[in-house]
Amino acid sequence: MKQLALIVLAIAAFACTEKQVRTISPEADTVMDRLQQAAGDNQFFFGQEDYPFYGYSWEYEEGRGDVKEVCGSHPAVLGCDLGHIELGDDKNLDGVPFDVMRRAIKDHYMAGGIVTISWHIRNPVTASNAWDTSDNTVVASVLEGGSHHEMFLGWLEKAALFMESLILEDGTKIPVIFRPWHEHTGSWFWWGRKICSPEEYVSLWKMTVDYMKNRGLDNLIMAYSPNYGGLTEQVYMERYPGDDYVDILGLDAYGDGPEFVEVLRNELTMVSRLGKQHNKPIALTECGMGGLGNPQWFTQIILKAAEGIPITYLLVWRNAPEYKMPDHIFAPYPGHASVDDFIDFYQDPRTLFLND
Asked: In Å, how far from its chain's centre is CA 330?
């Protein structure tokens, strides 16, 4: 009996070793609690990409923000991107200096905000951008045993070093919703659905998460974010890496009009159902209308699409300076046709901004 007991203990120990359950820091756990509490109260946090760095008519002016100048508050969620950090550049793919980004993340968190980071990582095989899908061997090449694996580990290290630098003076690690390998159900990135197999995608995701975990980055909250449109539960979950590797079930969705509202509502309802099954909060991890040509997009499109669905936050994309990209507008600025509608959106009891 004693020998049998030892065998059972050995098997249990081996199973625990193989499981590798990921834990998150108390600060990250607090962010998860805040997200879930908001959804439970039929509320969600509003966010925008790059909001402190530039807007429609300005760049790098301390304290400014298009959204704040319209409604009186900055967004509750700050989105940033690590693209080009893998190259060792001092600025990301949109020209934001990483030192400026680091300071803004700290300031936003200290003000009570939530931070999310994506990564439009360059194609390691062709040396082109993330949208280069000309080679369908890229994901395989960066996995263990692949021709670009060692180089890719160096890229992961550069991203990890930035994440490690997001600390307060007392040593607290700032929690970050990390959203790599997004919109993979589309095929416009080199990790997309038609560019790699489900097994390769899952291995890429797990390798990324395991690398960050082994660096002690327990402040990362992992968001899984397929692209909207044509999604079924099977397609949504086809490349799901498993509950131990994901914290938030997300959805990226851009569009306008009644059909967009209907499809997005159906797919958000599906994601909500999956969230309950897997005990995960859900979010509109990226959304918007390019150019914001519908002056009532916020109240008549996105609020209606999300009505009654427990999303925890939504993030619209950036407002690029007019002299660089005049149509790259996803939130109003003073004088824009959607200002009144956005103020109604801001005043809606469901929406939460930084001053909330």
From this structure: 17
- Structural element, H or E, at residue 58: strand 58-59
User: What are the tens digits of pLDDT across the range 295-336?
Assistant: 999 999 999 999 999 999 999 999 999 999 988 999 999 999
In one-letter notation, the amino acid at residue 193 is: R
Domains, the chain, in order of start with CATH, read 41-352 (3.20.20.80)
Instruction: Return the structure tokens found at 311.
Output: 């999303």
Kindly report, residue by residue over 95-124, the tens digit of the pLDDT: 999 999 999 999 999 999 999 999 999 999
Please check whether residue 333 is in contact with residue 69, taking contact to mean a CB–CB distance below 8 angstroms.
yes
Task: Say if residues 212 and 157 touch (Cβ distance below 8 Å).
Answer: no
Give all strands (DSSP E) within 248-321, no chain letters: 248-254, 282-288, 311-316
Nearest to 353 by CA among 72, 52, 15, 7: 72
Distance CA 79, CA 20 (A): 29
| 349-352: long-range pairs with CB below 8 Å, 24+ | 349/43, 350/42, 350/43, 350/44, 350/303, 351/43, 351/44, 351/46, 352/38, 352/43, 352/44, 352/45, 352/46, 352/76
Q: Which two tokens stand for residue 194?
A: 């038609």
Q: Strand (E) positions, 97-214?
A: 114-118, 176-179
Bin 15: left if φ > 0, else alpha if -120 < ψ < 50, else beta.
alpha
